[in-house]
């Protein structure tokens, strides 16, 4: 069976770690770092990961190695769900066909039995993760915002302090399946003890690597449906804590919880916020309750009225996790194919009187049979010489303190482990690959090919070729707003030449394991050729771009007056759109993040989706990025969807390293009394985000001790109640107080003023997207005001708090013809976003968060409302034209704790429902939204499947789709508008000039939307992503099908 390893990533700004994919026809295995950006790198390389069911994570359990894992699990789970649904449909069709053949189609009982039998053949997807300590804890911290069903996730934390079972082979692999055997090595640094205090771990360089799985060690029985866990009475408190977090992780990904299971409860006992349903007495259908709510300004009609509510999923009910400590162990693996049986020799079988037929097949498969004389014939009697399976090792060495323990491992001298191993991949931190001890080890093992993936030898090449090529071409149109992404095609400091049996790692490089062993770079991806990319742009586009550039340098009188009307220095405020895509990883757009640099104040991030730090490193040269980190003052997280916040930890860590050299404060010592706007960083969000940051800080010191975790309560514009800022207090701390008065006293003491952040005002409103979603407005001392929508349907309260904004940054996920999709998925269309910005009187609007590679460009006409009504060539936009949520849903409670964003509500963000209800449960048909549009949420480009993912929408336009076009809008104000692309850097005062580039951009987009060359999945065929060629860069991977 053919098998090979391919390098997907080497250390770059886009992909911080080294990731490999091990390919068999029936399965894939991800091995190495699962850092932020891994998904996009897989898409870029054309790697189909739908067949991945095991991931072997190397190195330490830190965000730089695991930051892409949560997003990847979500996407894999959604792909698996879609695949399972399709398989279930196929199974039902097979059962129906069989019933028809048997003549039992009309027998309901027999048909039900046939369908159940067919469903048994549908394999349930399971994802198994191998890592060092703390990965269960890492995943469990995400329980408030991660929930999937039907894909069990089993995490095996490799702990060498656990002994072997009596009689077990000393060199048995840690794990094996039908394809491979894996030996795990847990390496502790020599400079100090690891997180595990056992003597076995401290002497990791001299012990056997094989340890039992978690289930074996803890003698654990399967987790029953009720969620209880049975464990051996002899386990230690540490082991019991691990079982606790494993149970939480199990509920996050394989719970029996159902969205349509509702519980009866008296209306007076409903805790807000909540989704409340009632049964219509006339139709007997379930409907949403729309009457007065408990604690509202209008009395409820009947406090004892029976309503239906749902419980949150069980994982979200866990208020706190067991304690954890940072773990220093770095995990490496040795992976081998199984021994290949020798060729069957028919003449030997005949001589031994074995009848030809099934017995020969049994012998070929490795089974013994009896011959004509009743004698037992074993396979070795008829098979040729067996062959050791090919193998490789991946060694993750974070720094030089791990070298001694790694090189002292006994595996290197044990043939039972090393037989067949032909290559070693070194995933090294700086300085490791150039270390004399490592170089001597490489030379000593001269019969093995060594591949070095290290910043000492691997330059900071562009990894996301498609995105970079698109930016290069945009720069040809608008050289002031776009720069070539920062990269280096050579290492900054030349390193000593590698030994003769070693080579540097390259994307696409392959280690062929079977049928014959070979290491080659035939499919290695060359660095993106910027000059060649620019040369692809037609002269027609360049001529149109020159016209646009000339026009942009001439500011007309209306635009000049518009600039002069801005607050002082507002025209100098720089907005950099780091990520402008929707939830699914894309070659062309990263997930949400926008950087705003305000002269004299500092920098602010609006959302920080996965790999925001990588985008910052590409958008700004190193020295400029240092300045940005030093001036970073605030991160605002709009809601708890993963594509808006999973990059936060990395950004905080980079800030922490730059500003504080990773020197922590004593836990809990930072407060509003000693907060320094120049040396501390505020994260403003809903409490669930602060809870996550607080809990994850137990896994590693990423700088949380110097961060101000602030929650912002939603303003109630109907009541005239403004937002309030407060220092986050963990729910368990509040819950421990004796009564509501004590809790309110603590909350009042934790209240902070916007002036602490050197701001005049901070306002936020709840918006229609998911529980806890906020749109916010920030007012600066200069009078500059920025409003940010996050993800939402159009919101009237947002227009109220945003009144007089200088700039409104608003999502425009869907084109206008997909209005139905926008309503169903709680997003906005282009005209809706423009309508909101205009209604608040914004001077400028930046549109972002697009579901497609190229959104339709708005062409704006300005005039009075009467002129707008008379216009037929352009779509008129007035405040009345855009239906908006009124904010009446906020009028829920007079409880002050609810006004403070319900800090005691420790529930999952999308389903703000009841902790405890005493009524009976029943499954019901819930009222649903209809989708008038036709956009699909495709996973094809990502993992070779199809289906819905997270908050995912759309994808690149298919070949043959209409080319992008302009859509005309008539505004009744002088508002200026721009459409954002990744890496766009625009000053507020320049936004009015960007409309002049529309003709050139339309030509560029039309050319890039020409059908691409069809081709098989590059990685599937071992082509390393080179087959086919796409506009905007030389074919670095094709879009994948099923």
From TrEMBL:
Q: Which GO terms describe its biological process?
A: mitochondrial tRNA 3'-end processing
Where is region (Disordered) located?
A: 191-211, 863-900, 914-963, 1008-1042
Q: Which GO terms describe its cellular component?
A: mitochondrion
What is this enzyme's EC? 3.1.26.11
Query: What sequence ranges are listed for the domain tRNase Z endonuclease?
Result: 6-68
GO MF annotations in UniProt? 3'-tRNA processing endoribonuclease activity; metal ion binding
Q: Which cofactor does it need?
A: Zn(2+)
Q: Which reaction does it catalyse?
A: Endonucleolytic cleavage of RNA, removing extra 3' nucleotides from tRNA precursor, generating 3' termini of tRNAs. A 3'-hydroxy group is left at the tRNA terminus and a 5'-phosphoryl group is left at the trailer molecule
Low complexity biased stretches: 191-204, 871-880
Instruction: Output the InterPro entries linked to this UniProt entry.
Output: RibonucZ/Hydroxyglut_hydro, RNZ2-like, tRNase_Z_dom
Q: Which UniProt keywords apply?
A: Endonuclease, Hydrolase, Metal-binding, Nuclease, tRNA processing, Zinc
Which segments show compositional bias classed as Basic residues?
1025-1042
Identify which top EC class this enzyme belongs to: hydrolase
Q: What ranges does the record list as Acidic residues composition bias?
A: 888-900, 1009-1019
Q: Does the keyword DNA repair apply?
A: no
Kindly give the PANTHER family that the UniProt entry links to this protein: ZINC PHOSPHODIESTERASE ELAC PROTEIN 2
> Which protein family is it in?
Belongs to the RNase Z family.
Please identify the protein, giving its name as recorded: ribonuclease Z
């Amino acid at each position: 069976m053919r098998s090979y390893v391919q390098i997907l990533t080497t250390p770059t700004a886009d992909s911080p770690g080294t990731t490999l994919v091990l390919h068999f026809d029936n399965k894939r295995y991800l091995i190495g770092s699962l850092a932020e950006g891994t998904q996009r790198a897989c898409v870029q390389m054309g790697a189909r990961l739908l067949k991945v069911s095991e991931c072997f994570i190397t190195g330490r359990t830190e965000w730089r190695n695991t930051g892409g894992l949560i997003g990847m699990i979500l996407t894999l789970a959604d792909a698996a769900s879609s695949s399972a649904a399709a398989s279930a449909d196929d199974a039902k069709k097979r059962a129906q066909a069989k019933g028809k053949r048997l003549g039992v189609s009309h027998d309901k009982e027999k048909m039900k039995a046939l369908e159940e039998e067919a469903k048994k053949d549908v394999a349930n997807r399971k994802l198994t993760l191998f890592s060092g300590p703390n990965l269960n804890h890492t995943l469990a911290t995400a329980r408030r915002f991660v929930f999937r069903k039907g894909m069990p996730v089993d995490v095996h934390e490799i702990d060498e302090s656990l002994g072997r079972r009596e009689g077990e082979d000393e060199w048995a692999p840690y794990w094996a399946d039908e394809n491979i055997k894996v030996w795990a090595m847990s390496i502790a640094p020599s400079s100090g003890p690891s997180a595990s205090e056992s003597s076995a771990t401290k002497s990791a360089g001299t012990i056997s690597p094989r340890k039992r799985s978690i289930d074996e060690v803890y003698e654990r029985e399967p987790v029953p449906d009720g969620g209880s866990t049975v464990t051996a009475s002899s386990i230690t408190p540490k082991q019991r804590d691990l079982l606790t977090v494993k149970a939480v992780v199990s509920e996050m990904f394989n719970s029996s919880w159902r969205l349509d299971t509702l519980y009866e409860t008296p209306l007076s006992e409903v805790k807000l916020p909540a989704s409340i349903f009632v049964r219509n007495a006339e139709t007997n259908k379930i409907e949403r309750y729309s009457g007065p709510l408990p604690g509202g300004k209008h009395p409820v009609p009947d406090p004892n009225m029976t309503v239906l509510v749902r419980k949150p999923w069980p994982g979200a009910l866990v208020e706190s996790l067991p304690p954890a400590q940072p773990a220093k162990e770095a995990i490496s693996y040795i992976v081998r194919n199984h021994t290949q049986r020798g060729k069957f020799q028919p003449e030997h079988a005949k001589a031994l009187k074995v009848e030809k037929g099934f017995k020969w097949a049994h012998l070929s498969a490795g089974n013994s049979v009896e011959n004509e004389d009743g004698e037992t014939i074993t396979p070795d009697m008829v098979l040729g010489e067996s062959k050791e399976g090919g193998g490789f090792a991946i060694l993750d060495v974070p720094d030089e303190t791990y070298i001694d323990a790694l090189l002292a491992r006994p595996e290197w001298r044990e043939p039972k482990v090393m037989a067949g191993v032909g290559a070693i991949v070194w995933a090294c931190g700086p300085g490791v690959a150039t270390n004399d001890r490592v170089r001597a080890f490489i030379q000593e093992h001269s019969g093995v090919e060594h591949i070095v993936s290290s910043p000492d030898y691997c330059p900071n090449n562009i990894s996301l070729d498609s995105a970079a090529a698109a930016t290069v071409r945009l720069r040809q149109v608008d050289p002031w707003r776009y720069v070539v992404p920062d990269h280096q095609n050579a290492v900054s400091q030349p390193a000593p030449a590698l030994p003769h049996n070693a080579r540097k790692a390259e994307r696409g490089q392959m280690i062929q394991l079977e049928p014959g062993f070979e290491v080659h770079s035939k499919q290695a991806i060359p660095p993106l050729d910027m000059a060649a990319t620019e040369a692809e742009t037609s002269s027609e586009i360049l001529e149109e771009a020159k016209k646009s550039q000339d026009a942009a340098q001439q500011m007309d009188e209306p635009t000049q007056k518009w600039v002069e009307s801005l607050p002082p220095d507002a025209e100098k405020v720089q907005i950099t759109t780091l990520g402008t895509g929707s939830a699914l990883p894309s070659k062309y757009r990263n997930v949400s993040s926008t950087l705003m640099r305000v002269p004299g104040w500092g920098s602010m991030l609006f959302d920080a989706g996965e790999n925001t730090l990588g985008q910052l490193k590409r958008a700004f040269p190193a020295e400029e990025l240092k300045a940005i980190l030093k001036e970073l003052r605030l991160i605002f997280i709009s809601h708890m969807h993963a594509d808006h916040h999973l990059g936060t930890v990395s950004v905080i860590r980079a800030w922490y390293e730059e500003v504080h050299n990773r020197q922590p404060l004593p836990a809990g010592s930072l407060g509003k009394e000693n907060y320094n706007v120049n040396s501390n960083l505020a994260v403003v969000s809903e409490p669930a985000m602060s809870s996550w940051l607080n809990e994850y800080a137990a896994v590693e010191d990423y700088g949380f001790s110097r961060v101000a975790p602030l929650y912002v309560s939603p303003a109630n514009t109907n009541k005239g109640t403004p937002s309030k800022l407060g220092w986050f207090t963990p729910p368990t701390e509040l819950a421990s107080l004796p009564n509501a008065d004590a809790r309110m006293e603590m909350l009042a003491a934790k209240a902070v003023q916007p002036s602490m952040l050197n701001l005049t005002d901070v306002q936020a409103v709840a918006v229609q997207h998911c529980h806890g979603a906020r749109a916010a407005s920030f007012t600066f001392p200069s009078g500059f005001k920025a409003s940010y929508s996050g993800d939402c349907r159009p919101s009237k309260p947002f227009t109220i708090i945003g009144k007089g904004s200088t700039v409104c940054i608003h999502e425009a996920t869907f084109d206008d013809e997909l209005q139905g999709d926008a309503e169903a998925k709680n997003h906005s269309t282009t005209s809706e976003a423009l309508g909101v910005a205009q209604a608040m009187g914004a001077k400028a609007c930046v549109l972002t968060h697009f579901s497609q590679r190229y959104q339709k460009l708005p062409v704006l006409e300005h005039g009075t409302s009467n002129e707008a009504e008379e216009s037929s060539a352009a779509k008129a936009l007035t405040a009345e034209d855009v239906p908006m949520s009124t904010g009446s849903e906020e009028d829920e409670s007079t409880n002050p704790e609810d006004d403070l964003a319900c800090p005691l509500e420790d529930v999952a963000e999308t389903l703000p429902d009841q902790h405890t209800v005493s009524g009976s449960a029943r499954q019901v048909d819930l009222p649903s939204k209809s989708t008038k549009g036709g956009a699909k949420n495709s996973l094809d480009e990502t993992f070779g499947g199809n289906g819905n993912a997270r908050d995912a929408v759309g994808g690149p336009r298919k070949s043959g789709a209409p080319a992008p076009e302009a859509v005309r809008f008539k505004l009744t104000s002088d508002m200026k508008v721009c459409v954002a692309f990744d890496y766009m850097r625009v000053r507020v005062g320049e936004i009015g000039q960007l409309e002049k580039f529309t003709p050139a951009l339309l030509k560029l987009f039309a050319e890039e939307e020409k059908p691409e060359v069809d081709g098989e999945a590059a990685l599937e065929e071992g082509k390393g992503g080179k087959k086919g060629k796409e506009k905007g860069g030389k074919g670095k991977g094709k879009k994948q099908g099923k």
